[in-house]
Write a structure and sequence with these properties.
The chain has helices at residues 13-24, 45-58, 68-84, 91-112, 155-160, 170-179, 194-199, 202-207; strands at residues 4-8, 28-35, 62-66, 117-118, 123-128, 133-138, 161-162, 215-219, 224-228, 251-256, 261-265, 271-281, 292-297, 305-311, 315-325, 332-337, 340-350. Strands 12-15-14-13-16-17 form a six-stranded antiparallel barrel. Helix 3 packs antiparallel against helix 4 (91-112). By secondary structure, it is α/β, with parallel strands linked by helices. The N and C termini lie far apart (61 Å).
Length: 355
């Protein structure tokens, strides 16, 4: 019996190859594009056209689902609220869970009677018999690994999901696309968030929703060293664009939404030995009841570093072996044991915060 599978198609080379590989393996593939927002982003107008072309090349149906309301609520409103409160939200993991994977699984079940979906993400899934649960793993291609953005997926979604590119490198993916003559074979990778692609920059996007609000830039001693037009234009660890002349490099070390202040300091001031993390999802293991040792990744492009995880009820405290630069409230802290994603959550604040 041929197994039906719904494949998310963004119009890029990765999702195109994912669909092609599954089609070649004998699956009955349905291409699905989510209409997230208006604009020129890869996942929107241009992406829908390219996705439709790929489906025509493969001889599979192409369907489009309007998810703009979901995207507005879970991503746009979420981002605007977060930046207004002085944090720097991470939209991608939120989007994956609330806008993409969950709705895709429901659509596959309700419309096509299948519980199987696939995407072009670089990550892997395995089933651990000893734990009786699915586990999320890094991709073979560590440069393209996207497991950091997938930590919030639950067991039901992992059990329904295929990542055909998890064992491939990006050059191998492009080679397959070229061999199959796919239209997207030479299409450049998307470099930014879809919102930035559509609006030009995060500043331009936020300025549509958050009015300028002038305030002070102060150093860690409280001395006024400059002025700003809105704390939403800044993020922890930022060095460039401060507009301050100083004898040593200055970094944003804290954002104070109550006093509408940007606090700056030297690089040492921007480091932190620990932080609190909430909204946890233990994706690959049961929730720990005692402290554990593992590695934590606090930015997508940063290395995973040794850490002690201390459970504190509905949150944990991460104590790093060495202070980490630019710990940013609103971003994700994802916990690993080697290639295995143990879980992750949202950084609340540094314990050495001025507040």
């Amino acid at each position: 019996m041929v197994k039906k599978i719904v494949v998310g198609l963004s119009g890029g080379v990765d999702s195109s190859v994912a669909a092609a590989l599954l089609h070649r393996q004998g699956y009955e593939v349905v291409g699905l594009t989510l209409w997230l927002m208006k604009g020129k982003g890869q996942c929107c107008s241009e992406g829908m056209v390219d996705a439709a072309f790929i489906c025509e090349q493969l001889g599979i149906p192409h369907e489009i689902v309007d998810t703009r309301d979901l995207f507005q609520t879970h991503i746009v409103d979420y981002l605007v609220s977060g930046y207004g409160d002085g944090v720097t939200p991470l939209p991608c993991s939120q989007c994956n869970k609330a806008v993409k994977f969950g709705p895709m699984v429901r659509y596959a079940q309700e419309t096509h009677g299948t519980d199987q979906i696939a995407t072009g993400h670089y990550a892997r899934i395995r089933y651990d018999d000893s734990l009786g649960r699915y586990q999320l793993l890094r991709a073979v291609d560590r440069q393209k690994d996207q497991s950091y953005f997938l930590y919030d997926l639950d067991q039901a979604i992992l059990g329904a999901t295929h990542f055909p590119l998890g064992e491939l490198t990006k050059p191998e993916t492009r080679k397959i696309a070229q061999e199959l003559g796919l239209k997207t074979a030479e299409k450049p990778d998307s470099q930014d968030l879809c919102l930035i692609e559509a609006h030009g920059s995060m500043k331009t996007f936020l300025d549509q929703y958050l009015a300028p609000r002038a305030g002070e830039i102060v150093d860690v001693s409280g001395k006024v060293v400059g002025q700003h037009q809105g704390i939403h234009h800044y993020t922890i660890g930022q060095r460039k664009g401060l507009g301050i002349a100083a004898p040593e490099p200055l970094y944003v070390v804290h954002l104070d939404p109550v006093l509408n202040r940007v606090i700056v300091g030297n690089r040492e001031n921007a480091g932190s030995p620990d932080c609190f993390v909430s909204r946890l999802n233990w994706v690959s293991i049961p929730e720990p009841q005692a402290p554990i040792r593992c590695q934590a990744q606090v930015r997508y492009r940063s290395a995973a570093v040794p850490v002690q995880v201390i459970p504190l009820g509905n949150r944990v405290r991460l104590v790093f072996d060495e202070p980490q630069f630019g710990i940013t409230p609103g971003q994700a802290a994802v916990l690993y044991d080697g290639d295995c994603v143990l879980g992750g959550g949202i950084i609340e604040k540094k314990t050495d915060s001025p507040l």
